[in-house]
From TrEMBL:
Residues 264-390 form the Thiolase C-terminal domain. It comes from the Bacteria. Residues 5-256 form the Thiolase N-terminal domain. This is Acetyl-CoA acyltransferase. The active site is at 89 (acyl-thioester intermediate), 347 (proton acceptor), 377 (proton acceptor). Belongs to the thiolase-like superfamily. Thiolase family. Signal peptide: none annotated. Keywords: Acyltransferase, Transferase. It comes from Ilumatobacter fluminis.
């Protein structure tokens, strides 16, 4: 069977809502990531068999197959096809699966998986147009007793189910910020972040670091924040992912094609899984999908050197860790999101899957680890999981 390998992975810095990336058209920002893959690897884009791009709010500037629009905006040949996929927060992780699986099947020799979301310009919920009806049919509402709450309420329910306290959530949020600040100071993101221009007061400058990191964050500072979804709730802006802007891309090809082109693979795809869970709590998918991918891979939780579990909300990661951490949850968390996560670095929806993969790949290389597992919860009660093996 053909091995699918990662040759390179890049991402823009994460931009705050209304921050430095706010003036970028999403297709241009995605094109910026595509061009970085081309330039860094001496890639002739004409050989790319397909570009698979994740994007969640496919409306307005992100409508009409933004993957194709990004290919054309990048100046790539018109012969390069592209498509756009939506598996909610895991959209570009699913794009990565499709690209790698295409290579493994022999359908592709070279593919790019990418993702983009400029949430400043195309906000969350923009694709729901009230006078055109709601996405949930009555049959679905009846199935769940007309109770399909927003994700924040689902996160509150998970925190209660797993016995998590406000202090637990705030401690996790503060740790995410501290890890991200340390990683930035140590230059851990330098290989994955592509400098991205922005204009301020008529002057163009280069953005080279994530904008959402808040140095000096402590449990005490987060404890002062008010609950965001329930008056007596535990979920706040400080223990939730940040609304942000960004794009990312991963160059995938067969091992044979990489050798032919003189490119050095950095990791191979080991295993894939996708799972569904209830759409009410919605965010527990990383738990069953981790069990599923470990069974498929033949690996145990102890075989995995590093984990990236998307920090949509702190309870998502903590519930997952309590499930798989056994008697030493802290030991598992020490290998999880070691450079911080979406609470500090942002969660630009459709971008996040390939964004996390760029971080996982670089950290495996930095630490000498062999296996990395990435998973994330997704709207509607879904989750993807991917295991890569560093080469």
């Amino acid at each position: 069977m053909t091995n699918a390998v990662i040759v390179d992975a890049v991402r823009t810095p994460g931009g705050r809502r209304n921050g430095k990336l706010k003036d970028w058209h999403p297709a241009d920002l995605a094109a910026h990531a595509l061009k970085a893959l081309e330039e860094r690897n001496g890639l002739d884009p004409a050989i790319v068999d397909d570009v698979v791009m994740g994007c969640v709010m496919q409306v307005g500037e992100q409508a009409l197959n933004i993957g194709r629009n990004a290919v054309l905006a990048a100046g790539w040949p018109e012969t390069v096809p592209a498509t756009t996929v939506d598996r909610q927060c895991g959209s570009s992780q699913q794009a990565l699966h499709f690209a790698a699986q295409g290579v493994i099947s022999g359908a592709y020799d070279v593919a790019v998986a990418a993702g983009v979301e400029v949430m400043t310009r195309t906000p969350m919920g923009a694709s729901i147009v009230k006078d055109m009806g709601l996405p949930f049919p009555q049959s679905m509402m009846d199935r769940y007793n007309s109770f399909l709450p927003p994700q924040g309420i689902g996160a509150e329910m998970i925190a209660e189910e797993f016995g998590l306290t406000r202090d637990d959530l705030d401690a996790f949020g503060a740790e995410s910020q501290q890890r991200a600040a340390r990683a930035t100071a140590e230059g851990r993101f330098e290989r994955e972040i592509i400098p991205t221009p922005y204009t301020i007061d008529g002057t163009t400058e280069m953005m080279t670091a994530d904008e959402g990191i808040r140095e000096g964050t402590t449990i005490e500072t987060l404890a002062a924040l008010k609950p965001a979804f329930k008056e007596d709730g535990m979920i706040t802006a400080g223990n939730s992912s940040q609304i942000s802007d960004g794009a990312s891309a991963v160059l995938v090809m067969s091992e044979e094609k990489a050798a032919e082109l003189g490119l050095t693979p950095r990791a191979r795809f080991h295993s894939f899984a996708v799972a569904g869970t209830d759409p009410v709590t919605m965010l527990k998918g990383p738990i069953p999908v981790t069990e599923k991918i470990l069974a498929k891979s033949g690996l145990s939780i102890d075989d995995i050197d590093l984990f990236e579990v998307n920090e949509a909300f702190a309870p998502v990661v903590l519930a997952w860790a309590k499930t798989y951490g056994g008697d030493d949850v802290d030991k598992l968390l020490a290998r999880t999101n070691v450079n911080g996560g979406a609470i500090a670095l942002g969660h630009p929806l459709g971008c996040s899957g390939t964004k996390l993969m760029s971080t996982l790949l670089n950290e495996l290389e930095r630490t000498g680890g062999r296996y990395g597992l990435q998973t994330m919860c997704e709207g509607g009660g879904l989750a993807n999981a991917t295991i890569i093996e560093r080469i």
